[in-house]
């Protein structure tokens, strides 16, 4: 047995399951953990006992659905195997929906048009991400849904928490108090409910038939006078038709099938906002990009998707179709959504090369060189500052 063990080297990784997807949470440093050298049986048992204990503590935090520890065993003569030495699933718990804080400053909404606009809907998608991902819809759909009152009534504590979270952030600008901002938001929600009820009672309202968006939009134009009414009833019909769909990709496919190169600005804008609302959710991005070996690779792939040059490493029709759509059409809101996510990752503190920390400096320089020329002009200064801050932190770590 001693000779058998001496011919091998061991490394370990801790994997976690989040939102139905496995990812590497910790690639344990072989030198730090004494796992890069030659072990005897007692060493292996001690290390694995320690890592399993650490994994159980991580699972007990409630952040993960399951956890496992993987051992990779490499022979000195070449080759090796990967073995699962621990795997445990979290206890079934009732999911608690929460309002999430956001770094971005919420826009000040003074009308329903403001509330249902892209900037506001993006914030609502981020704040109420847990609810919208569970229900598989977006803020844009919810605000135009015939069932808006029922949604709010069933989730009032969550909606109330979101209102006060947004109001507190708006109040930091000093124009109005948090209480005053909350009252304005509550009034706007009451307006949205009133519009929803009136639309549901409207006779001969336009309906989406056979996913024919152009026919729907033209019917709304023929029925209503103002652009605001046309937009509202178009989205109202889409929300009715999409109810019960359990995938954001049904919306993405709807947009893909209906966007045309000659489409005018107003009807194109509605489809653009619908697509951007889907791309606000991390689960959609993860599904599009698939498993990526590092944050560096994930950011690079997102940039390729935003510029319409993404080629999935494994066949993924949805990702290929979306990349072509963003390349060939004027879907600016969807592109902006991806660049905002890229900017957030660049400004974050997560390492680009978690498994290969010695390559972090080079990866940062390379990613800046790749991203900055292809990014829209409005994002380039912030990207440069984000990369500059990353390099500053790396210099501090090395010093």
Short account of what is shown:
This protein is of the alpha+beta class and 399 residues long. The chain has 19 helices and four strands. A four-stranded antiparallel sheet has the order 2-1-3-4.
Helix-strand blueprint:
Layout: H1 2-6, E1 8-18, E2 21-27, H2 41-60, E3 66-75, E4 80-89, H3 112-115, H4 118-127, H5 129-135, H6 139-143, H7 148-154, H8 156-171, H9 178-201, H10 213-223, H11 227-242, H12 248-258, H13 265-279, H14 282-289, H15 295-307, H16 317-328, H17 332-347, H18 360-374, H19 380-398
Helix pairs in contact: 8-9, 10-11, 12-13, 12-16, 13-17, 15-16, 15-17, 15-18, 18-19
Question: Explain this structure to me?
Answer:
The chain is built from 19 helices and four strands. With 399 residues, it is an alpha+beta fold. It has three domains: 2-89, no CATH class; 94-201, no CATH class; 282-398, no CATH class. A four-stranded antiparallel sheet has the order 2-1-3-4. A hairpin with a 4-residue loop joins strand 3 (66-75) and strand 4. Helix 12 runs antiparallel to helix 13, helix 12 packs across helix 16 and helix 15 crosses helix 16 (317-328). The protein is globular and about 80 Å long. Mean pLDDT is 88; it is low at 1-7.
């Amino acid at each position: 047995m001693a000779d058998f063990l001496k011919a091998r080297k061991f490394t370990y990784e801790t994997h976690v399951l989040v939102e139905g997807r496995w990812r590497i949470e910790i690639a344990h440093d072989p030198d730090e953990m004494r796992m890069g050298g030659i072990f005897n049986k007692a060493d292996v048992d001690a290390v694995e006992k320690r890592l399993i204990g650490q994994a159980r503590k991580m699972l007990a935090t409630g952040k993960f659905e399951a956890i496992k520890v993987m051992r990779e065993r490499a022979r000195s003569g070449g080759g090796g195997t990967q073995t699962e030495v621990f795997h445990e699933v979290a206890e079934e718990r009732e999911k608690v929906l929460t309002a999430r804080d956001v770094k971005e400053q919420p826009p000040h909404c003074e009308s329903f048009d403001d509330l249902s606009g892209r900037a506001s809907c993006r914030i609502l998608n981020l704040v109420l991400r847990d609810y919208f991902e569970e229900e598989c819809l977006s803020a844009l759909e919810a605000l135009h849904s015939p069932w808006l009152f029922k949604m709010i009534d069933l989730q009032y504590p969550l909606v109330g928490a979101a209102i006060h979270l947004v109001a507190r952030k708006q109040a930091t600008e000093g124009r109005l108090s948090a209480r005053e901002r909350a009252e304005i938001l509550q009034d706007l929600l009451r307006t949205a409910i009133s519009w929803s009820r009136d639309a549901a009672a409207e006779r001969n309202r336009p309906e989406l038939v056979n996913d024919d968006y152009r026919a729907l939009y033209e019917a709304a134009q023929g029925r209503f006078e103002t652009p605001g009414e046309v937009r509202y009833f178009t989205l109202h019909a889409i929300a009715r038709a999409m109810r019960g769909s359990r995938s954001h990709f049904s919306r993405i496919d709807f947009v893909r099938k209906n966007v045309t190169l000659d489409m005018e600005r107003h009807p194109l804008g509605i489809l653009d906002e619908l697509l951007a609302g889907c791309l606000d959710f991390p689960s959609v991005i993860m599904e599009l990009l698939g498993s990526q070996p590092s944050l560096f690779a994930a950011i690079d792939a997102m940039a390729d998707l935003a510029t319409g040059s993404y080629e999935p490493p494994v066949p993924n029709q949805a990702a290929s179709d979306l990349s072509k759509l963003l390349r060939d059409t004027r879907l600016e809101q969807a592109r902006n959504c991806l660049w905002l996510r890229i900017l957030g990752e660049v400004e974050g503190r997560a390492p680009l090369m978690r498994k290969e920390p010695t390559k972090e400096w080079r990866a940062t320089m390379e990613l800046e060189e790749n991203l900055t020329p292809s990014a829209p002009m409005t994002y380039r200064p912030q990207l440069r500052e984000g990369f500059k801050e990353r390099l500053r932190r790396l210099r501090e770590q090395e010093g």
